[in-house]
Amino acid sequence: MKNLLLTTCLLLVAMGSVLAQLPVLEQYIRQGLQSNLSLQRQQQSLEKAQLALQEAKGLFYPSLSFLSDYNYANGGRKIDLPLGDLFNPIYQSLNQLQQGQKFSNIPNQQVLFLPNNFQDTRLQASMALINTEIWYNYKIHREMITQQQAMVNVYKRNLVKDLKAAYYNYLNSLRQQDIYNNAATLLKEQYRSTSSLVNNGKALRGNLLKVDADIHQNDALLTAATNDVQVAKAYFNFLLNQPLETPIPADTSVYAAALPDTVPALSAAAVTGRDELKVLQSGLTQTNLQVKMKQAAYVPELSTFINGGYQGTGYTFSSDQRYLFGGVSLKWTLFNGNQRRAQLKQAEVDRSSLQNQLAETQQQLALELTTAQTNLHNAQARLGSALASQSATREYYRETKVRYAEGLVLLLEVSDAFTQFVNSQLAYQLALTEVLTREAELEQVTAAYPL
């Protein structure tokens, strides 16, 4: 027992060490795949399908039931049995021949159709020997498990994409908050510089009002960015099924994956492993089994049964009441108003519809692949442009600020350079987030993430 506890503790420590070595986002993805409520519902549907398969399998085994019937009757239809009229003349003749009263007269009888005080207590065993519907029903339920597992994988991949996009959006909100905080620091510095110029008679006092207005505008944008952080954090926690205010650490190492001009060249064959296709292919297999089941409806059904128990008047359970009764039952439906033919046609129509849906989905997934590749390429192009623009506006703002401190340019030029610099930082951060999001979408389209 001590060795078992020690082994368990060592395994838990090892698992914790492995998880600790994973990137923060990867840890959250694994957590989400375990705790997301919508995914749990999908997995419960899979469990339900597995239980339905067990139920279908149970139809191959014999069933044993305990049955007990008791009948009480009073009145109702009767049948007259003229036993006295038939046997009394014979008895009288025999008495005359024997000169005695050895044979007494008997009355006529009335027998109720309904049995009174009659019980039938028995064990009944039955089993299907030939039943094509049971066999194909089992195969269909087994295929339903494959379909439901594919549906679970579809949701897992969508969840991975949503978790990544939500985390990238959270990091983007934090970066925007930092940008506005830095902008506030620069505006305060600009206010001091402008104040010094005003005191030295090199600038108008109205310039201070312009800088003060810019400060208030930046404060409003900072407040909005702070609120966006809270919303992004709440949504990410919602996907993880944990309290919305749970702190989320920021792992900026994910930005290393946002490299420009690295779109992989993929063909339409890259989507052949999509679980959406597996769902439809499994559905098509089920429909084919449905067609075969309808075609096999012409095969007769054969079953057997046996009853053993006690039957008679009152619950005496004597040897006279004990009985054993069994047999074989054959059912062969020769005509049922063309119902089977209509059912077969319906199954064939369903099969044709699924074949068309499968072909359409294959084209749709190929289109998604092309779109995802194009979107990623465009996002990476915008990232490269935003990076160059950020470098240029940073240098332009630095030079303009120096010239403004020397009284060589107007405040309007400094404000314009400052706005361009802040907007370029926001644009670069947005482009960076878009690249990461587009990479997550391409990963989902190609089913590249290992589940």
UniProtKB/TrEMBL annotation:
GO terms for cellular component: cell outer membrane; efflux pump complex. It is found in: Cell outer membrane. One of its GO terms (molecular function) is efflux transmembrane transporter activity. Residues 1-20 form the signal peptide. InterPro entries: OMP_efflux, TolC-like. Belongs to the outer membrane factor (OMF) (TC 1.B.17) family. This is Outer membrane protein TolC. It comes from Chitinophaga costaii.
